[in-house]
Amino acid sequence: MGEGLPFFLPRLELALAKEVTRLDRPVGDYLRENAHYTFGGFNWTQAFLDLLLQVDAARIMFSTDHPYASMEEARAFLDGLPVGPADRERIAHGNAERLLGL
């Protein structure tokens, strides 16, 4: 879950305005377009939906918190994500394959 970054993106954009950072674009743009996020250990629909609304499904990758959390629960969460089949496939493996050149 990006150590909470998706949840904080709107706040970061307020606190780190372009006038402060002197970046060409808002700081959130860089975090949305240049980082990938996982949700291992955060198998809650509300947290996932916030992530999905802040970054696109193309930036989300499935992960688990094994051995500290149940693999079965993580897989069940993936299977029940409130997304369409194409986004589920991207999140499950497609995004990682693209990012890692697999």
Q: Which structural category do the helix and sheet elements fall into? A: mainly alpha
Strand order of the largest sheet: 1-2
Task: Give the CA-CA distance, first to last residue.
Answer: 23 Å
| Quantity of strands, as a count | 2
Mean pLDDT, to the nearest integer, reads 93
What is the oligomer described by this structure? Answer: single chain
Q: Would you list the SSEs in sequence order as H and E?
A: HHHEHEHH
The largest β sheet comes out as:
2 strands, parallel
**Rg on CA atoms, Å:** 15 Å
**Percentage of residues assigned to helices:** 55-70%
SS element count, helices: 6
The low-confidence parts are none
Strand content: under 5%
Q: Rough shape?
A: globular
Supply the number of structural domains: 1
Give an overview in words.
The chain is mainly alpha-helical. It has one domain. It contains 6 helices and 2 strands; from the N terminus they run H-H-H-E-H-E-H-H. The chain has helices at 5-15, 18-21, 27-34, 45-54, 71-79, 85-100, and strands spanning 37-38, 60-61. Strands 1-2 form a two-stranded parallel ribbon. The mean pLDDT is 93.
Key terms:
single chain; 102 residues; mainly alpha; two-stranded parallel ribbon; 6 helices; globular
Question: Secondary-structure blueprint of this entry?
Answer:
Layout: H1 5-15, H2 18-21, H3 27-34, E1 37-38, H4 45-54, E2 60-61, H5 71-79, H6 85-100
Parallel strand pairs: 1-2
